[in-house]
UniProtKB/TrEMBL annotation:
Residues 8-177 form the O-GlcNAc transferase C-terminal domain. Residues 210-247 have a biased composition (Low complexity). GO terms for biological process: protein O-linked glycosylation. Keywords: Repeat, TPR repeat, Transferase. Pathway: Protein modification; protein glycosylation. Residues 208-266 are annotated as: Disordered. This is O-GlcNAc transferase C-terminal domain-containing protein.
Amino acid sequence: EVVDVPAGWPVFTSLNHPRKMKPMRFSSCMEILRAVAGSKFSILSRHSSTGENLRREAKKRGIDPSRIHIAKVLNKKFHIRRFKASTLFLDTFPYGAHTTATEALYAGLPILSRPGESFASRVVASLLGSLGTGGDTCVRTEEEFVELGIVLGKNQRRWNMTRARLISSKSTSPLFREGEWLRHFERLLKILWELEEAGVKHVKIHFDEPSSSSLPRSPSSPARSSSSSPSASSAVPFPSSPVVSPSSPSPSPSSPPSLAQEAADSSASAHFYRKQLDEELGAAKRTLDLLNAELQTEDADQLGKLLSSSLDLVDEIQTRLLRAQHAWKQLGRS
């Protein structure tokens, strides 16, 4: 049984706390609704006045208030179930979804998000990066947010491919392998305890976002140098083994790193690129499988349409293979 989900397709949803929905983002959501005929927007209500206020604001923006579905607070079982019956999660900005985003992704619901510069605006981008699907539904600007929302609401084939990649990546990503994540987190705590016992009071812990090449950067954020590598900054992706270095006192520039530290850095770098290589090859294979499945039709008219949409899949495969080639070259240097 599916509960508390409006009938029809598509159903956009934003089950964050309603106070996260700012006027600018609400206007963007209404633009998407206006462009996608028959669409509905489900938004969470925690107070009796929330629904009335949101429907009034929708009417001000030229949207029939009946297209705004006021969702209730449900227990976890039905909360996850309504995600599975929805089409696309429209993230809030600048304070985005956190726990709710994890629940939506667990249910296989794609999330459209625009990461900003703050931590609170980048949680969804980080989660999608861990899944290796950040390039599918992360955008740079508010205009791109509206454009992609309209595309995914109108083009069911595009939406099907996006959702299929998300569901496929769940089985290979560390995001939902809590046992592996827990082991690495325990190791991090052990390292911090040992540093405390050794009298080291201040440390720097370096992390890189997994599959960061698939995540868009804010226009105001400088691009990362193509020559940078984990070995240069002793950075590895979390939840992989963390690299912890004392920040005080600072080491003397004339003091070379120990052989043990060099070996640890090299091992961390190799682990990072080995993992990236495996992720990109796996993503390329999954996309190739989708392409093969699409081209199995014997209907000539249908085949003509599929050939056009399949070009996007070919581009995706090429991009993944280029990233895998880069990881392979870096792996040879580490």
